[in-house]
């Protein structure tokens, strides 16, 4: 149960970023969240307040503040309260929107799906799907190349559906994908009510369609013996007290997990492929490592051999973390890294700026995978300087699966192909709600 909030007290003022009347910094946040935060940091330091989507939010950018909030030994920071004003209505009761003992209970139920034996079992299907989708995308490419964001999104959604739900979506893939797109757009919509015709109303309608689809599948799974997919396991799972999860609980977990399992990995793959397209030498290094697998799959036993791929992946996650903000609601008056906070205050960590903090990273805007090599290890300067998967109790359950999936897809591309950009081509990543290239990203894969 969440701790009871203590009475608030007066605190020293935190610098505020001047925004527009009524709208605050919302337009700048939606247009260029990273630029907004880095400009504010340059002016105000590692703690300042923005007003976004009608909510004042204190941004904390130091690695020490990141550590104290993530570790949260006194259960002071509520993830549910933090996410409630953005994705809360769309992804209610997902694992990231649960707190303290309730979160711990549900995390334990889901954890077995991400143990080593389970991950090993997933990889045969992951590798096969990766090769299938890459071959199809290359065969169907036009003169301007492959839309690598679209390819990665379809592939990772297919993987998530088959591994976690136990279904091949087929013609339903576009319907499910469109539902997630509508829900994520709704999460940052300025109008937060279901007014007909608004992005928020479309997102909530999409959530209802997706929940109905999954609820039917839960009923099917409960009527059959327990299978290997996560949906089947959750449909039959019980708590430590022997209580079966409600249908709504299973559905809410699956809605959030499907989002997390495909959209975040899609963003990472897109950023990796873009930078690899600029760096043929890194493609050759990865291909050389793949040759040691003798054409075999990327598996739980071999994925750590792909060191160059891992360095490129880490740098992609640094430059464009898939969850760029980690909001929290402050439960009681406290102090974080010397910054006084009051009960009821909204705060956020911001890895999209922490990962480019000029005090901690050498040439922070430059693509340089070797910054993660053992002889440099810039990420080791502080335990919470590099946090692409979050931290503490809410650290991503699927971080190892994400690495396995990412390496399998990169292997499927580079084992037989090379990637290049067209002359003068640029990529601009929108940071929120989940990183995505503006206007898509087409690369020549040959």
Concise structural overview:
The protein is α+β, with helices and mostly antiparallel strands and 446 residues long.
Helix-strand layout with pairing:
Layout: H1 26-44, E1 47-52, E2 55-60, H2 63-71, E3 77-78, H3 79-83, H4 100-111, H5 116-139, E4 146-147, H6 148-165, H7 173-187, H8 199-222, H9 230-236, H10 247-278, H11 280-291, H12 307-319, E5 326-330, E6 334-336, E7 339-341, E8 346-349, H13 351-354, H14 399-414, E9 419-420, E10 429-430, E11 436-437, E12 442-445
Parallel strand pairs: 2-8
Antiparallel strand pairs: 1-2, 3-5, 4-12, 5-8, 6-7, 9-12, 10-11
Helix pairs in contact: 5-6, 5-14, 6-10, 7-8, 8-9, 8-10, 10-12, 10-14, 11-12
In spatial order, strands of the major sheet run 1-2-8-5-3
Question: In the CATH hierarchy, what is the class?
Answer: Mainly Alpha
Radius of gyration: 22 Å
Low-confidence stretches: 1-11
Strand content: 5-15%
The end-to-end span amounts to: 55 Å
CATH topology: Cytochrome p450
Can you summarize the main beta sheet? 5 strands, mixed
Helix content: 40-55%
Could you explain the architecture of this structure?
This protein is of the alpha+beta class and 446 residues long. It contains 14 helices and 12 strands. The protein has a 5-stranded mixed β-sheet with strand order 1-2-8-5-3, with helices on both faces. The chain has a 3-stranded antiparallel β-sheet with strand order 4-12-9. The longest helix has 32 residues, at 247-278.
Jot down its keywords:
9% strand; three-stranded antiparallel sheet; globular; 446 residues; five-stranded mixed sheet; alpha+beta; 14 helices; disordered N terminus; single chain; Cytochrome p450
